[in-house]
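Sequence in, structure out. Go.
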Amino acid sequence: MHINMKYYIVTIGAIFIALGIGMLVGFNLNYDQELSKQQAAIIDDLDAKFEDIKTTNDELEGKLDKKESEYKKIVNYLNENYLVLIKDQLQGKNVGIISTTENYDYTQDISKTITDANGSVAYDIILKSGLTNKDKIKELNSALQLQLKTEKDVVNYIMSCLKEENAMDKLQQLEKLEMIKINYLSDNYLDCSQVVMASGDTNESSDKFTNIDKTIIDKLKEDGKYVIGTQKSDVKFSDLENYKKDKIPTINNSQQGTGKLSLVYALRDSVEKGNFGIGDKVDSIIPFK
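Output:
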């Protein structure tokens, strides 16, 4: 039988193609096996690292829980024993108290903290909403022959009165007009060198800090007085961030034992800066030397 040359060529070509395909398939199979081994090794390595991270994380969580438990014990100890810790710490200190709102008065508590630490209260005055009333300002001007126009003027007048010997006579006129409330004014109020600003409010007021709180702070600083701002931890509207901007030390939990400690220690050492109390925006729970 005669076999055509084309048949040989096609046959040989088919053989080579088949060999090529076989070699390619074999190579790919081998490559896939190597790739699978590499992937498996990477996964094993990741698993090992994940286990290491999980172990480290568990250890850190355990340490954090222990520290948090220790922290709570310290806070509870301070809250329960603050009276012992503040005893006689304010001896010789004569401290004034000014509350900038009648809606949120806790000055009696501040006064008690000061006296519990054997300090004395120079004055305890609450500024009332009538202080901003234009008609009441006119009545005050008429009664005392003054020329006050705004609440800033009234605040400055109050601060000036506290530097004079006849303060009670003048301040009583403001009290009659329900612009202020005088809880206490000692005989030696002129010796006051430190002032606690009782801040916070139940109502929001955009200009209260600028027109009232800051006016008082600026006046006290001008007179060389030490100033500290306080509030209770359950306050609805806070001005402490503004106090911080004005570089005034602050306490955000004055009703708690640690807050009372902070107040006494800050007054005792005239702490120049720091935000004390509870939460994320504080420097420490109490002032430390």
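Check: The chain has a mean pLDDT of 86. Residues 90-277 form a domain with the Rossmann fold fold (CATH 3.40.50.10140).
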